[in-house]
Amino acid sequence: MEATREREISGLTIRIDRDLCIGSGNCVNLAPEIFEIDEENLVDFLGDTPDIDQDRLVEACMLCPVDALIVENADGDQVVP
Ligand code: SF4
Q1: Which atom of ligand 1 has the smallest separation from the CA of 37?
Q2: Partner of 80 for a Cys bridge, out of 30, 41, 68, 71, CB 3.0 to 4.6 A?
Q3: Helices (H), ranges, the chain
């Protein structure tokens, strides 16, 4: 299975590097509409991901202790980590 997942949410590009994820669940706690922990104990996007408050989405990604969540803004600039 691909180690990297990418999705456009709330005008941002969110990338998950599952090779880095340690399943801490920080991102899930802050953005439960977006992320879930799967059967491999790694984070993945939920099937349907609504646009949520952009600040909360960015903060959820910033809380990752291993920088497994990468965020790019609409200009293509990396804002997390
Ligand atoms: S916060 Fe980081 S390490 Fe924790 S589940 Fe989310 S992506 Fe994985």
Answers
A1: 5
A2: 71
A3: 26-30, 54-62
